Amino acid sequence: MKIRNLLTRPLGLRTSPLGCPVSSLLSKDNSKLFANKYPVLNQDVNESDTVAQVILGYDDKHLKYRSCIRVELLSDSQVKFSLESRVHCINLFGKFYMAIIDYVHRHYIAPTMLRRSVDHVILSRT
After folding, report:
1. Of 38, 74, 85, 112, which cross-links 34 as Cys (Cβ 3.0–4.6 Å)?
2. In 3D, which of 42, 37, 32 has the Cα closest to residue 19?
């Protein structure tokens, strides 16, 4: 994030000490945060408590972002985790920004979010 902040500060973009420079992540209200970091838009657990989904995301002036984290209990010893993300670019700057950061999101941010989700589930069960 330090490098991103240095590169984007001259362009007048929002900077942040967090992994994602979104104003909703900097809010003092953490009642609707997943893993004390990501804004929760929706969540659902099926009737048999075997599938849980959490929708995370935000709307910015340049893009809209959504991620769905899904946890499915397949058996007593198997759990399936999945992460799906969608970004809708609102304007040309949003497209430019995503073109620059796409690689980092695919190879660092998405795997980190998934790993933190798994860690959160494991820690909550102990």
Report:
1. 38
2. 37
